[in-house]
Design a protein that fits this description.
By secondary structure, the protein is mostly helical. Helix content is 54%, strand content 0%. The chain has five helices and no strands.
């Protein structure tokens, strides 16, 4: 062994696992999903719906996982979604189903152009 070998040390760098922190929008959308899952059951059972959740309006300013995805298309679909959701929770019972499915389809159409992962889950909200 040469003197150079004695001074060599193996340096191990420990990798610290990075915990996933969902964005404001991811958390909001999860809440929207859960609320609409309950609303779906209420519609199917012909129960009264709760009022439109005002926190859904945060869709206009919640931080997205990828902030570059907030564009004109996103804003347009988000506004249409809010209008359809408001109509769902304020409509006469004969049009509740129409507005509910319209809002779910708007979610799907937005997710088709960005973040496609949740589409199968969202489709399960549709009432056939």
């Amino acid at each position: 062994m040469g003197s150079c070998d004695i001074n060599k040390k193996e340096v191990k760098i420990e990798e610290v696992p990075v915990m996933y922190e969902p964005s404001e929008m991811a958390l909001l959308m999860r809440g929207m999903y859960e609320f609409n899952k309950a609303a779906r059951a209420q519609i199917i059972n012909k129960d009264s719906l709760l009022p439109f959740p005002e926190e859904f309006l945060l869709i206009h300013k919640a931080v997205l996982t990828d902030p570059s995805e907030r564009d004109k298309e996103f804003d347009t679909i988000a506004e249409q979604f809010i209008n359809a959701q408001k109509a769902t929770f304020s409509a006469k019972s004969d049009s509740t189903l129409y507005h509910f499915n319209k809002s779910v389809n708007l979610c799907i159409s937005c997710h088709e152009t960005r973040c496609i992962g949740p589409i199968p889950k969202i489709k399960k909200l549709l009432i056939h």
